[in-house]
Specification:
3 helices; 2 domains; mainly alpha; 0% strand
Amino acid sequence: MRGEERFMRGEERFMRGEERFMRGEERFMRGEERFMRGEERFMRGEERFMRGEERFMRGEERFMRGEERFMRGEERFLRGEERFMRGRVRFVRGRVRFVRGRSDLCAAGAICARLERFVRGWSDLCAAGAICARLERKLHAWRENCTRGKKTARLPSP
């Protein structure tokens, strides 16, 4: 009997061990599945990261092109501004020559200071670097107002 009991206990122990092994195997399988899902998730994240990185690179390139375009525009603007300034200087010199050339309008031989100020005020009307015809007509109209040794009489408004 004693051998039989021992055998039965051994068999029970074996059965418990087998059950324990089965539970361990199930646990391992669940862990393996969990690992596989984690691996898939990691792969998706890696793909997403790669797409994001590509998108970032394209955005960076686009930004660089925009920055270059802006710089070219800024340079173009500065050249235009310089050109405008040179044109304005040229215009002012031309206007001064025009005013000096009109000294015959004044019996005293010079345009009065008030008229010069008025001519300067008309700069926005003249884009080509010469005083417009309308202003020329006004200068002719003022000839009678200018007499030797006197300031001009009240000038008509433009």
